[in-house]
Amino acid sequence: MSCVWSGGHGTSILCAGVSCESERLVATGAEGGELTLWSHDGSPVSKLHMSPDDDVTCVAFSPSAPCMLYASYGRTVAVLDTRNLKSAVAELADAGEEEINCVSVNEAGSLLAAADDSGAVRIIDVQQEKVIRTLRKHDNICSSVTFRPHRPQSLVSAGLDMQVSLWNLPKVRPLWTYSLQDTQEKDAHPQKAGQMFNPPLAHCIDVTSCGDVFACAAEDGYVHLLRVSEDSRLRERGMFKAHSQGASQARFINFLSQPYWLATGGNDGLVALWDISGDDLLARKSKGHKKRHKGRAKKKPEAQETDKNLKQQTKSEEEEASSSSCSSETACGKNEPKLTFQHGEKVNWICPAVLKGKPSLLVVDQRPSPTVYSLDQL
User: Fold this and answer.
1) How far is CA 245 from CA 160, 241, 269, 270, in A?
2) Contact at 8 Å (CB) between 88 and 81?
3) pLDDT in tens for each of the 378 residues of the chain?
4) Which spans in 119-266 are helix H?
5) What is the pTM of this model?
6) What angle do CA 328, 331, 335 make, to 5 degrees?
7) SS3 207
8) Which residue of 83, 223, 340, 345 lies most exposed, with the fewest beta carbons within 10 A?
9) Going along 253-355, which residue ranges are E strands?
């Protein structure tokens, strides 16, 4: 059911990534600037020390050029060619204003997003190797960022300010920003005397392969779900309790039977697999889609200025309505994990992958060795 890869690191592993090519190379980054490339059977292929002073906080393969690997350490993003990992092809210095926590490459392989401790998300033109946009909205550390599939100009970010923001380049203002506290406060159960309360600090954000549902792992132990419409408006939101301690990871799995399989990991040492395809948040999808078309039809004969006001009013009403209709009890209360692994250590990163032709889940923690769990049971 599980196996441990060894011989790749001497320090705690912080992150992992997998290439989309047939060989399925795996990259892991660790404390002390360690970066290791693994074969799909768990053998270390090559190792590189990026920096003696900074940890490798994130690794990401290019979807369009699987041999290209991006690794962040300190404020720098290194561009690496996995066919020759002796040194970096290029180093994008000052890619972050402060230490970078997460990087993501869009499907076209043309843009890279870097989220850092300042709360900023910097957009880098890969070909020009320079920062072309800086997105500012988060008031605290921006912990996670990811581009949306099939939308190379669209990305979503999350941070320790408990905010999730959706961006559409080249605009530098978000399309919308949502506070996880809004869902938490609405769905909160009465607190017992002496009970500890963890705020929903956002640690990880991910998007389904179809691009319409976001999952955010938060410090309150919940996974917060957000669904958007085809025009990227926020339509539904909810949450479900996934972990007894903080949820550190939430990753959709794009190689199973449908796109709504979700893997989560937490500070409680639990790794869980969820099928959210039957969730009420998704069941209302077709109903919400019809409402949106009706609203557009009513606004056609209006004048331009009136139409603008109506759009703003309709957007507020829709968000208020969806907030009141989606709760952890009604939208997400029925979720139970389909598969669990008692990993036993605080989870730093989860990486779904097809390894040796089998669906798998690679998990890294405070130890220097990754663990691979088989998903054959699904």
Assistant:
1) 16, 10, 9, 9
2) no
3) 799 999 999 999 999 999 987 668 999 999 999 999 999 999 999 999 999 999 999 999 999 998 999 999 999 999 999 998 888 999 999 999 999 999 999 999 999 999 999 999 999 999 999 999 999 999 999 999 999 999 999 999 999 999 999 999 999 999 999 999 987 666 555 555 555 678 999 999 999 999 999 999 999 999 999 999 999 999 999 999 999 999 999 999 999 989 999 999 999 999 999 999 987 777 665 444 444 444 444 444 444 444 444 445 444 444 443 343 343 333 455 589 999 999 999 999 999 999 999 999 999 999 999 999 999 987
4) 180-187
5) 0.85
6) 80
7) strand
8) 83
9) 261-266, 270-275, 339-342, 349-355
Q: Which residue has the tokens 């870097």?
A: 114
Q: What is the CA radius of gyration of the chain?
A: 21
Q: How far apart are CA 181 and CA 239, in angstroms?
A: 11
Tell me if the bond preceding 368 is cis, omega within 30° of 0: no
Find where tokens 């994990």 sit: 337
Q: What is the rounded distance in angstroms from the CA atom of residue 155 to the CA atom of residue 110?
A: 14
Tokens of residue 308, six digits: 């603008």
